[in-house]
Amino acid sequence: MSDYKLVFHINENDRWPFTLRSVRNFIRADDRHRAVVVANGGAVRSFSQLEADPNRMARIRGLEAEGVSFVVCQIALGERQVKEELIPEYVKVVPAGIVEIAKLQSEGYGYVKV
């Protein structure tokens, strides 16, 4: 199998379980696979430590430890009044999630909308 790069785009909070399973299955299929999860829209609420599901955050942290990058949209945080200080240190905050997706695609990442 070749090494593949995928960006998983999530914008609905209730899609996290499916997203995390999909990412896990992808990266565990081959240790050369790389994945980035970009969260915008309502999905950014899961990164708020005040609203976070502890099990979900543990799964996110576990995938991050396996090399998955997690990115959250600053615009979506502001629209949902989630303070950046609440975002875990292992999650990168970018000015606009959609721009990050375009950038990753220009770097050869495939796009998966979850």
UniProtKB/TrEMBL annotation:
Mention any Pfam family matching this sequence: DsrE
Identify the SUPFAM superfamilies for this entry.
Answer: DsrEFH-like
User: What is the superkingdom listed in this entry's lineage?
Assistant: Bacteria
Q: List the InterPro entries hit by this protein, alphabetically.
A: DsrEFH-like, Sulphur_relay_DsrE/F-like
Per its record, how is this protein called by name?
DsrE/DsrF-like family protein
Q: Which organism does this sequence originate in?
A: Trueperella bernardiae
